[in-house]
Design brief:
Chain lengths: 219, 376
């Protein structure tokens, strides 16, 4: 990783033309060959960049970064304040907890959390347009489709609406109602869900994990 | 460094140590396999700070030396090579691997800060490789997979003189296997808790080994290590912390009814009947007279039933199991017949093997299975 702080102008030509006027910026040259130009704020994203594979040709005061598609980033360096390189080694990568999958598993083992007498029919119930996270039955034996999200947004409501439309064409299952279950649900999503007759359910991951799943155990 | 080695020997040696490669290393050196060539031997090693692996491979060494190369890459390369002698040599900062008409060059990793591997703990005794592999696989199946309960992801090994007892449980089932081993010290008494996955992989790889030496670090030491060695291969593993739950009292001492069935027949029936449900939905079994009726599915859903003839003695019983857990238990048996012993429909059942329908139950392996509740 090479980190350069310099007063520079940047010109990009390729699919379109773009220009960064003269200012002090951070230039990053990564081990994979990519070059990124950052300003101090405004966005976490670079102002401009070239992703690998690309080649960097350095002259005294200009850097020319080109890729196979013929795109070109021309960086003119007016004054260099710092230029450092560090060997970072191999990155172990970002570890994300599969929250949605975990929530699905936890809820499938504890359908009684939604209501007394609720039972699981199937996880990942297949429909022609994809699997519904959970198909369960309420205390009266009526089917309910549950879509599980980490954050409940409009998309989730739309998705569940499509599933419900398909599920309700199946006379074995109909009538099927829907529940959007998430750790948090956006107000717009709530309004749309209410309009479509879909219930919302807030899931507390930690509490769900702490609840005994009710399966008899040896100890 | 320069040597020539048989491909199969190299593949075995590399495969053994690759088990201990780190997948998410805190330093990049842990991604490497260390190759040391000296006096007609290759010494391969890998270490992820918890589990270490070492193997010795016979080779024709023309020039000794030590290099560290990417483990993942070495495994892939060796696996893909044709069955011909493999020549390996160090050219400057690259290692060349030449086999038949194929040639690879690998960059070397800096071996400077490679950690020192732990020593194999002092030998406590030994056991035949195939017996050990079978015993471990029989109990490892019942180990938990939930990392929030780390103690239950382990296999508990209890040693008392010439008797070794292996046990694992995920709270829904418990598997216990007793074996005889050759203890080096006559009055030895020790116990260890090892990650089931690690133990299972090591024991499986040592299946063809005549004798596996087991080493245990002395209790009260700073590092709790267990080691396995056999035919030029060594593995050490740090033990899991925590206390394994006491389990012996869970095994019922008597039963109110006993069924005997051929394992293959029961397994086929279980597989067929559980087709109609999710793998976690209860499979219902009714034992009475000389028949076992299996049922799955309820209400308006698809349903399946099958009836098989069995030997049955005692009070008729209706009981429900998780079909996956039941199949796991049946799979773990070495014998052709299974004996299922019950005390009540809400109490755990004990599976054990029988060589013949009429012979007595083998008590060296027991699989205790908790029934599921189901609405009538």
């Amino acid at each position: 990783m090479r980190v350069v702080i310099a007063r520079c102008t940047v010109e990009y030509s390729g699919r379109l033309s773009a220009r960064l006027e003269e200012a002090t910026r951070l230039l990053m040259v990564k081990a994979d060959g990519s070059v990124l130009i950052h300003s101090d704020g405004g966005s976490y994203k670079p102002l401009n960049w070239m992703s690998p594979p690309c080649t960097l040709r350095e002259d005294e005061a200009t850097w020319e970064v080109t890729n196979k598609a013929g795109e070109r980033l021309l960086i003119t360096l007016h004054e260099i304040f710092s230029d450092h390189a560090h060997e970072l080694g191999i990155d172990p990568g970002l570890v994300k907890d599969g929250v949605e999958a975990q929530l699905q598993l936890l809820l499938s083992e504890r359908p009684q959390v939604i209501g007394d007498g609720w039972t699981l029919v199937r996880r990942e119930h297949m429909t022609a347009i994809g699997p519904v996270d959970l198909l369960v039955r309420d205390a009266n034996g009526r089917h309910v489709a549950i879509e599980i999200k980490r954050r409940g947004e409009i998309d989730g409501v739309e998705q569940l609406t499509r599933y419900l439309d398909l599920l309700n064409r199946d006379p074995q299952l109909a009538p099927v109602r829907g529940i959007l279950a998430a750790q948090e649900i956006k107000p717009q999503a709530r309004v749309l869900a209410a309009d479509r007759g879909i219930d919302c359910l807030i899931l507390d991951y930690d509490a769900l994990k702490g609840i005994d799943d009710g399966r008899p155990r040896l100890f | 460094m320069r040597f020539t080695v048989e491909r199969d020997l190299l593949a075995d040696g590399v495969g053994w140590v690759a088990r201990s490669l780190s997948t998410r290393p805190i330093t990049p050196v842990l991604l490497g396999i260390l190759i040391r060539a000296e006096s007609a031997q290759l010494h391969l090693s890998a270490f992820d700070l918890e589990v270490s692996g070492r193997s010795q491979v016979e080779a024709d060494v023309s020039e000794g030396g030590t290099v560290l190369v990417s483990g993942r890459l070495l495994v892939e390369i060796v696996r893909s090579l044709p069955n011909k002698p493999v020549e390996v040599r160090l050219d400057g900062s690259k290692v060349s691997v030449i086999c038949g008409s194929a040639r690879f060059t690998l960059p070397i990793l800096t071996a400077g800060d490679y950690p020192t591997l732990p020593e194999m703990p002092a030998a406590a005794g030994s056991i035949a490789g195939d017996l050990f592999a079978t015993a471990v696989s029989q109990v490892a199946v019942a180990a938990g997979r939930d990392d929030s309960l780390p103690v239950l992801t382990g296999v508990h090994v209890d040693i008392e003189k010439d008797r070794m007892t292996l046990a694992a449980t995920d709270r829904y089932r418990l598997a216990v296997r007793e074996v005889l081993w050759t203890n080096d010290r006559p009055d030895i008494a020790a116990s260890a808790l090892i990650r089931a996955r690690t133990l299972f992989d090591a024991a499986k790889a040592l299946h063809g080994t005549k004798t596996v030496t087991i080493g245990l670090s002395p209790t009260g030491g700073t590092e709790h290590l267990i080691g396995f060695a056999g035919e030029g291969r060594i593995m050490t593993s740090r033990m899991l912390d925590g206390t394994f739950p006491p389990y012996r009292h869970l095994l019922p001492s008597e039963s109110s009814s006993v069924a005997v069935v051929e394992v293959a027949t029961l397994m086929d029936a279980v597989r067929r009947v559980s087709v109609v449900t999710d793998k976690t939905v209860p499979l219902r079994l009714s034992f009475s007279g000389d028949a076992l009726r299996l049922e799955a599915g309820t209400g308006e859903d698809a349903q399946a039933t099958e009836e098989i003839s069995i030997n049955f003695e005692g009070d008729p019983i209706n009981i429900a199991f998780n079909p996956t857990y039941l199949t796991d238990g049946l799979n773990a048996l070495e014998e052709s017949y299974v004996q299922l012993a019950f005390t009540a429909s809400g109490k755990p059942a004990v599976l054990s093997g029988r060589t013949e329908k009429e012979s007595g139950a083998e008590n060296s392996y027991r699989y205790l299975l908790m029934p599921m509740r189901y609405p009538n």
